[in-house]
Specification:
Elements (H helix, E strand, L loop, with lengths): L2 H23 L9 H11 L2 H9 L6 H13 L3 H26 L2 H12 L2 H6 L6 H20 L4 H15 L4 H16 L4 H18 L3 H10 L11 H12 L9 H14 L1 H17 L9 H24 L12 H18 L18 H30 L5 H11 L4 E5 L7 H9 L8 E3 L4 H14 L3 E7 L6 H13 L2 E8 L3 E7 L2
């Protein structure tokens, strides 16, 4: 490579890296933590002698919690600190995507992939969440890099070993990693079906993964029977599949979003993300035409591998979603972003850098728009708009409108108006939401000592009556949330009102369906 080209590549790499860092840090504390994030924080705040017992009872494998435990022991439990770890995972994904592009074709290909990744809304969103999804994407991308090297440099045993190591780490992070690995190994096997030497390397790699996973298999089996109940996605249907597609490609937002946010989503879709959708469509058109280009014959195996990987991972996940209730959510497929960006990069590379990309044989006037020279001109304009929207408009819009549930406001209200003989009742027959506990601790309100988990049974009501009598309780606060997912508000209120003849004093509503109701005991 000439020195001038190397300098240009380095500069563009640093620019895209800077964009990625900026977009993953700018809103890192603008949104409050929500229930799942708070759960992660409370897991790792447990002392070491209790930490493992808590982790193995979660519905996910333990690797992310182990890393988060070490991270928070060094940098604390603030929202910024905990989310920064996810942002770092997301940022570290970028150079591996560049290496993938470089291995497939050249540095230009790699730069296109990391440009698309740097402004990816799904990646940015989960880079700001205290959950494992950014780590999933990082580990899958590294696994994908070595899988591609198993195809482009098939006789190097190290690639199979590294694929096994990072594949094992992936399935210790999330069970969807198993689907990812099935896709990776299946693609490599099909492409090298008649090569016995390479198949031995593949078999050795698979054995490493299986042996490394043996210690976790009993817990995985237990989660397989009890784990999906931990999700709230419900039975997958065409309607909620379309919602998940929206989340994946346009705007990651909670499904229980209420009416004032619908208009904001429309704005987000049709103003901010339209350029992203257009450039994706143009790149896919380019990709389909590049399949016919003779200069791309040497990439035949990589083509087939990427396409089969896309079909397998997304296809298996969707089929399982229809068959097994609560088993499918879009965020579990975050690793698939790497596959999609590679497919888009094939098309954009063809449009921008292939001098022979013209369709002289197309005589139908209505198809002239598919001429790469015309698509290239359209793409330049769209990319400029896309950069302005992604770097300036989207961060501002997100910080104002796309907010998570207001648990902090709920905690502040409790602290402000809570009296000595009050009690907080959780209507869900389980623990007080971790996010409410987090913000209560942050604002020095002792929620645990002033709350009661109500059991719907007769014994539970009787015990609650004893609690009220022993503590001279005069007022009851009830916390309701996600009312569209649970009908417990009416159930809890009816039981308490009938039993104690309660009088409603006040009701406070907070963002995204959090309701705090205050009752007085006569």
């Amino acid at each position: 490579m000439k020195l001038g080209k190397l300098k240009t590549t380095s500069n563009l790499f640093l620019i895209f890296l800077g964009i990625a860092i900026f977009l993953r840090v700018i809103n890192i504390v603008s949104e409050q933590i929500w229930v799942d994030e708070a759960g992660s924080i409370f897991y790792v705040r447990a002392p070491l002698n209790k930490f493992w017992a808590i982790v193995i009872n979660d519905v996910h494998p333990p690797l992310y919690y182990i890393i988060l435990k070490g991270w928070t022991s060094l940098f604390g439990y603030s929202v910024f600190s905990c989310r920064l770890l996810s942002a770092i995972f997301s940022i570290l994904t970028l150079p591996f995507l560049f290496f993938i592009g470089k291995d497939i074709k050249d540095e230009k290909f790699g730069l296109i992939i990391i440009f698309l990744y740097s402004i990816s809304p799904l990646s940015i969103y989960y880079a700001n969440e205290v959950r494992s999804y950014s780590l999933i994407h990082l580990l899958f991308t590294i696994s994908l890099l070595f899988a591609i090297r198993c195809i482009t440099i098939p006789n190097n045993p190290k690639n199979y070993v590294f694929l096994a190591i990072f594949g094992a780490l992936l399935i210790y992070t999330h069970y969807f990693g198993i689907i990812y690995l099935i896709g990776l190994y299946f693609g490599i096997i099909v492409i090298n079906l008649n090569n016995k030497k390479i198949n031995k390397n593949i078999l050795f790699s698979i054995i490493i993964v299986i042996l490394s996973y043996i210690p976790w298999i009993p817990y995985a089996i237990n989660d397989a029977f009890g784990g999906p109940a931990g999700y709230t996605g419900g039975q997958l249907s065409v309607i909620n599949l379309s919602y998940y597609a929206f989340v994946y490609f346009v705007a990651p937002v909670p499904s229980n979003i209420n009416n004032p946010y619908i208009l904001n989503l429309v704005i987000l879709t049709f103003i901010i993300n339209i350029p992203l959708i257009i450039i994706s469509i143009l790149s896919i058109i380019g990709f389909l035409y590049s399949l016919k280009n003779r200069d791309y014959i040497d990439l035949k195996n990589v083509y087939y591998f990427i396409i089969s990987l896309f079909v397998l991972i997304f296809g298996i996940s969707i089929i399982l979603g229809f068959l097994i209730p609560n088993s499918f959510t879009a965020k579990n497929l975050i690793g698939g972003l790497s596959i999609i960006h590679i497919i888009e990069a094939f098309g954009l590379y063809y449009l921008f850098f292939d001098k022979n990309s013209s369709f002289k044989k197309i005589n139908i006037k209505s198809l002239k728009i598919f001429n790469p020279q015309i698509l290239r001109k359209i793409s330049y304009s769209v990319i400029i708009i896309l950069l302005v929207n992604s770097i300036i408009i989207y961060p501002i819009f997100r910080s104002i409108y796309l907010q998570k549930p207001d648990w902090e406001g709920c905690a502040k209200r409790l602290k402000k108006d809570f009296r000595k003989h009050d009690i907080v009742v959780n209507p869900y027959n389980r623990q007080i939401p971790d996010a409410l506990r987090y913000y209560s601790d942050l604002h020095d309100f002792d929620l645990d000592d002033n709350s009661y988990i109500l059991d719907y049974g007769a014994d539970g009501i009787e015990e609650f009556s004893d609690e009220i009598s022993d503590e001279d309780i005069t007022r009851i606060w009830i916390v309701f949330y996600w009312l569209d997912l649970d009908d417990s508000e009416e159930k809890t209120e009816d039981k308490l009102i009938d039993e104690y003849n309660l009088t409603k004093v006040d009701e406070y509503e907070f963002r995204l369906d959090i309701i705090l109701v205050l009752y007085e005991i006569p």
